Amino acid sequence: xxxxxxxxxxxxxxxxxxxxxxxxxxxxxxxxxxxxxxxLFPKLNQGTLYSLTTGPISKTRxxxxxxxxxxxxxxxxxxxxxxxxxxTTGKYTRIWSAEDGETLIIxxxxxxxxxxx
Length: 117
Description:
CATH class: Mainly Beta
Number of helices: 1
Helix content: 10-25%
CATH topology: Lipocalin
């Protein structure tokens, strides 16, 4: 029983740091038509994204550099998208590219959000 308890305690201590650097952002397009909520996990190179236009997207690849966060994801397996955020200014560019070559570019700004409770 002591070994089991020791394993559980050790597991909790080691796994607690995986999400320690979670960054939450709220991004609003320049024309106020698109609001996107983001959760970034830079240590894991993953992130989640939610907006009313796409719904929840949990399968994103996050690439973090010194001055950028870049999300890569697909929408309905037909549209590839990149959501790129400047870490200094908070400005973002979202580029959607369809299989037929059509491209949509949306720009806006992001702000960190903190828990309300």
